[in-house]
Specification:
Oligomer: single chain
Number of helices: 21
Largest sheet: 5 strands, antiparallel
Number of strands: 17
Structural class: alpha+beta
Shape: extended
Distance between the termini: 29 Å
Length: 652
């Protein structure tokens, strides 16, 4: 239950063995490849080694192609699944089969080709339908569309606003320009489609007159034949395009059966991308290559056994203090504390030379969550839900850790709920009272949120003191290990003595002549510890600042734990409110329905609220005492990081 000790790996091997070595490292799943150190690159013996271009960009493009193909299939037939559907299991040999990878990439390319053709045909359908809709108002015109003039006459098609007075337009045109005639072809709520016949000499005058009435030339250009003939041609093209579109859609639908193959390909391509990213860190001259990385100390024996099967040279050593910022961090926890990995990673991984907070945080986080939820029924639902999910879904590491966290928090919720007598609030007493109005049954309880609020408040603050003191103790141990004994004495040690003296003074223990001796010792320690590094008048400012920050800091941090009582009280009250609302109906069935709906909402609200507030207490009040963040994630080449399939490891 700590941060795994790492060894630095430096290796030189034959370039011809590179692919085989990388594949064995993937199966081994423990080598985190890193950038070649500057001192290694500066070695004259390796001066001819250069970085080689990788196929990273190509692999990334292939991954996008496969993801686009899966998305296309989802549009045809959404994937069936759910929270409890486990990932399909495949063997490592099947997962790394290059022939299957090529087949999947070819299938993705074919699906994307179908999608591109479907898109083209749909755009063509829209264009043809638009042309047809444009021609429909002109069907009464029996002249060829390419005919726009005779020897002395111009033939124009145009539109007038729907509100234009047709009789007035015709009359004005006949009165002012006798060499022109206008014919109405069709009329709709949007426009009037007209045919204008005019002598060439009078065309400009006729157009000027009609434009004053809103006349505009039509856009029917580049077509030949009559309107009816063009509509028939478009209808035939639409029918042909529709058949081609349907054929492409059917071909795409036939590819749905290959969805699982494509999903496995996504996981494989993600692995290939990680491999290519790692290969970019290698140095090679075409004959040999050099790599560096990190391996957990517990895995070095297996690694050396594997490397012994190749013609290569390697060295494993512990990192120096200067290398600590570059060492990847792996939290090595058991089944209980690993459930907190997600919480720690959400904040920030600890530094390599820091402290793994999971074993220290787990009891507090789980207990605090149980206190805030504090209901047996809620706890049972959390326990059953997490167990069913773990058994049925077989989730990946992150999902498994979160489900296990809900499981442990559910256990704590049930235990605290048994202490407070909560089962969906006061569901059972209310139900029994509906069945038998004279019932006075009450759930057995050590204390209840509504009746023992002060006791719960004091208990919450006491738990806060315990966690804060635990954080201070961890800080002391860490400072002593790092050789900063004086800092441990004058920082945490001073406040321990002061707080102990304050308690003894209140209890009137340890006083000599009415003077609290331990408290006086603490005061002297505070005075010296806050001023021994300052000079002159700065000692006064340093002392005042230390006292102010210490007192306000302790007070505000401890007061934050009041939220344990507040959320316990809020959850209990809401549950009782919903039960009371259900009992208003006077019906057992109505009571059960209203109560269960209300408690379901209360459970959902409390799960989110307790989770957030519990994290806040850990991150601000606990981590702030000792936590050293900034660690880099340990991401070895392995078969574990998959989204769609579960890899069954095989012996090599």
């Amino acid at each position: 239950m700590s941060i795994a000790k790492m060894k630095r790996l430096q290796m030189i091997a034959l370039d011809s063995d590179r692919d085989a070595l990388m594949e064995r490292m993937v199966h081994l799943g423990c080598v985190h490849l890193s950038e070649i150190a500057e001192e290694t690159q500066a070695d004259q013996r390796l001066s001819l080694l250069k970085r080689e271009p990788s196929a990273l960009a190509q692999r990334q493009a292939q991954l996008r192609q496969v993801q686009n193909a899966i998305q296309a299939l989802s549009g045809v037939a959404p994937a069936k699944g759910g929270m409890l559907r486990p990932r399909p299991q495949v063997s490592g040999r099947e997962f790394l089969n290059d022939e299957r990878l090529r087949e999947a990439l070819a299938a993705a390319e074919q699906i994307n080709t179908y999608m591109a053709e479907i898109g083209r045909l749909q755009a063509q359908m829209v264009r043809l339908q638009t042309e047809r809709m444009t021609l429909l108002p002109w069907q009464e015109l029996d002249l060829p569309l390419e005919l726009d003039h005779t020897r002395t006459t111009k033939i124009l098609l145009g539109t007038l606003p729907a509100a234009a007075d047709w009789q007035s337009v015709c009359g004005q045109l006949a009165d002012e320009i006798g060499e022109a005639e206008i014919c109405l072809l069709s009329e709709s709520s949007d426009q009037k489609c007209v045919l204008l016949l005019c002598h060439e000499a009078k065309l400009d005058a006729a157009l000027e007159l009609l434009r004053g009435r809103g006349f505009a030339l039509s856009q029917l250009t580049g077509m030949t034949g009559t309107v009816v003939e063009n509509v028939q041609r478009l209808d035939a093209s639409l029918e042909e395009t529709e058949k081609a579109l349907q054929a492409e859609k059917e071909a795409l639908a036939d590819m749905v059966s290959r969805r699982s193959e494509l999903q496995q390909c996504v996981d494989r391509m993600a692995l290939e991308i990680r491999r290519e990213e790692s290969c970019e860190r290698l140095l090679s001259d075409g004959c040999i290559f050099c790599l560096e990385g990190w391996v957990p100390e517990k895995k070095t024996a297996k690694l050396e056994e594997m490397l012994g099967q190749f013609d290569c040279a390697w060295a494993l050593r512990a990192p120096t203090e200067e290398e600590y910022p570059d060492v990847p961090v792996k939290l090595d926890n058991n089944r209980f504390t690993r459930s907190l990995n997600g919480i720690t990673e959400m904040y920030s991984l600890p530094a390599y030379n820091g402290v793994d907070p999971n074993p220290l945080m787990a009891p507090f986080f789980i207990l605090f969550f149980g206190m805030m939820m504090a209901d047996m029924a809620y706890g049972l639902l959390m326990i059953l839900g997490s167990l069913v999910y773990l058994k049925k879904a077989r989730p990946a590491e992150n999902g498994r850790n979160f489900a296990e966290l809900i499981l442990w928090c559910g256990v704590a919720t049930f235990i605290v709920g048994a202490m407070t007598g909560g089962f969906f609030g006061d569901f059972i007493p209310q139900l029994l009272k509906l069945i038998h109005p004279e019932s006075t049954f009450q759930m057995p309880a050590l204390f209840t949120p509504l009746d023992d609020t002060v006791a719960i408040l004091v208990g919450s603050l006491a738990l806060g003191v315990v966690q804060i003191f635990t954080g201070m103790a961890i800080s002391v141990v860490k400072k002593v290990k790092d050789g900063h004994v004086a800092d441990a004495i004058w920082d945490e040690g001073t406040w321990w003595v002061l707080l102990t003296g304050l308690v003894l003074m209140i209890l009137k223990v340890g006083n000599v002549g009415g003077v609290p001796v331990v408290l006086c010792i603490g005061g002297v320690m505070l005075l010296y510890g806050s001023t021994y590094q300052a000079k002159g008048f700065g000692k006064v400012g340093s002392f005042i600042s230390t006292v102010y920050n210490g007192v306000t800091g302790f007070f505000s941090d401890i007061l934050s734990y009041v939220r344990l009582m507040a959320l316990m009280l809020a959850g209990s009250v809401l549950a009782q409110v919903f039960n009371t609302l259900g009992s208003v109906f006077g019906s057992v069935i109505g009571f059960i329905i209203i109560s269960l709906i209300g408690n379901a909402l209360n459970l959902a609200l409390n799960l989110l609220g307790c989770y957030v507030h519990d994290m806040r207490l850990q991150f601000l009040e606990f981590f702030g005492r000792f936590y050293q963040e900034g660690g880099k994630a340990y991401t070895p080449l392995s078969l574990n990081d998959t989204k769609y399939v579960e890899i069954i490891k095989e012996e090599q």
